[in-house]
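Hi V.,

You were right to ask for the full record rather than a summary. Here it is.
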Amino acid sequence: MGSADLSAAEREVMELVWDRGEVTAREARDALPREVARNTVRTLLERMEEKGWVMHRIVGRAYLYRAARPREESIGRKVRELVDTVCGGSPESLVAALLDYRGLRPGELQRIRKMLDETRAGRLKQG
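Predicted structure:
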C-alpha cells in the first residue's frame, strides 16, 4: 500500500468517498461542484487506489470505491505538514495561532482540555 499524499483534486474526491461511504466514479463526478471530464474522476480514483487511499469492489459493471484509510489519517498528515512547514516545527505556534486567529467555542475548549488530560494520563501510565 502506498503512502503518498493526496493532490487537491484527489482530496476533493476523497471527501466525497468519506462522506458517502461508497461511490462510483460517475456518482463522484456528478457530486463535484464543477464540471469534470468523464474519465478524470476514474483516473483520480485509480491513482488514489495506487496510493492506498481507496479500494474498490465490482458490482455488475460498476466499480464501487470506498475509503481504505480514515479521514483522521489525512487530517493528521496535514497537521504534521502544517506544523513542520508553517510553524517551524512548533506545535505551540499552531495552538497559539488557532487561539489568536480563530478562537474556540466553549464546547471545543472543554473537549480539547479533556483530550490533553487523557494524553497526559496515558503518558504518565506508560512512562
